[in-house]
Amino acid sequence: MANDRELFIVFGRSRDGGGNNRDGDGDIVTDRRTKEQTRTKKPALYKCILLNDDYTPMEFVVEILKQIFHKPHGEATRIMLHVHQNGMGVAGIYPYEIAETKVRSVEELARESQHPLKCVLEKE
Ligand code: TYC
To answer: Strand 28-29 and strand 45-51: pairing?
Structure first.
């Protein structure tokens, strides 16, 4: 038998005259086709979670949600208040590299303004 990893694409008429195609070892191949992969595997998603603290101004958190997570003002305010009242909340959900970049951006802006705001990742 041919190696399982060997791929054969069988097109058109048979070559042995007897209605069959043969693989590299001479074994009969009646219907072997490669299946096209039509869907791309979905990437794993990660939640960017904002953590509450006692010092970061509410307006600063709203600005972060607008600038980095592209939330409209009303939604940014709602998320900020949720974090303020519940201790944490989801700012956005993204593939790993994008989520990681957003976390860095949040912490960089917070550090520049000397706020202790923290943002962490959690796998979906
Ligand atoms: N608790 C902060 C305050 O009272 C506001 C705040 C909200 C801070 C959300 C962080 O992720 C945060 N100023």
So the answer is: unpaired
Number of H helices, E strands in the chain: 3, 5
Centre of ligand 1 to C-alpha 14, Å, is 73
Give 95 Cα–ligand 1 centroid separation in angstroms.
26
Pocket test for ligand 1, best of 48, 49, 52 (most atoms within 8 A of CB): 52
Please report the pLDDT score of residue 40 as a whole number.
Answer: 83
pLDDT tens-digit series, residues 42-90: 999 999 999 999 999 999 999 999 999 999 999 999 999 999 999 999 9
Predicted structure pTM score? 0.73
- Packing angle between helix 58-67 and helix 73-86, nearest 10 degrees? 130
CA 10 – CA 120 distance, rounded (Å): 51
Nearby residues of 112 by Cβ (< 8 Å), 6 or more positions away: none
